[in-house]
Design a protein that fits this description.
alpha+beta; 25% helix
């Protein structure tokens, strides 16, 4: 009899600790340092180290003095945001000591991954991981340069952090591959700080 009572008692306790009602906590819900999941498009959960509201983020705060030196920047300063990135969007411009490349970090507040896939085209996007964040890389034409490399980091539902590397303003030795190397390094550095915000 005792053998049957223990499983029934355990089942009753576990049933009382969980909820099938959406949005209601259950014993399995946890908070803390676990990755944040959300829905970037209202469909499948997105696994991120931390969801960060980009509307309140200064993108220049993602570059520490140590990173500025390690990445080879001679300037990191706020720039004029692009209106097509949504009201309240912010921009941070970076210039390299060698002047072969430039870089930007933008906060995109007017749509997430679904909008990116529609406007850029899924076939032009390469899926990446940047410090645990889902990310997408694309190479673009940039008038007056050798081209650009853009990395979109899925930082929050409906919001993307855009890291761009732009190859040579009038510099023949700069390449799109070089812009991508620099954009990836900048995205990794910025992503590491983003996860602490």
């Amino acid at each position: 009899m005792r053998r049957l009572a223990v499983p029934f008692l355990l089942a009753a306790v576990l049933t009382g600790c969980s909820s099938t009602e959406q949005g209601k906590p259950s014993a399995g819900d946890q908070t803390g340092s676990a990755p944040t999941t959300g829905t970037s498009a209202g469909t499948a959960p997105v696994n991120r180290p931390k969801a960060v509201d980009l509307a309140t983020l200064d993108p220049c705060s993602l570059i520490t003095p140590e990173q500025k030196t390690a990445l080879g920047f001679n300037a990191v300063k706020a720039g004029i945001p692009r209106p097509e990135y949504g009201e309240g969007s912010k921009r941070c411009n970076q210039t390299y000591v060698d002047h072969k490349y430039t870089a930007d970090i933008h906060t995109l507040l007017n749509g997430g991954v679904d909008r990116l896939k529609k406007t850029t085209g899924e076939s032009k996007l390469t899926t990446l991981q940047v410090v645990g964040y889902p990310a997408y890389l694309t190479r673009t034409e940039s008038p007056g340069t050798a081209g650009a490399c853009e990395i979109y980091i899925d930082a929050n539902d409906g919001q993307l952090l855009l890291v761009s590397g732009i190859a040579g303003l009038g510099e023949d030795s700069a390449t799109v591959d070089g812009a991508c190397e620099r954009a990836k390094a900048l995205a990794e550095a910025a992503g590491a700080v983003l996860a602490t915000k």
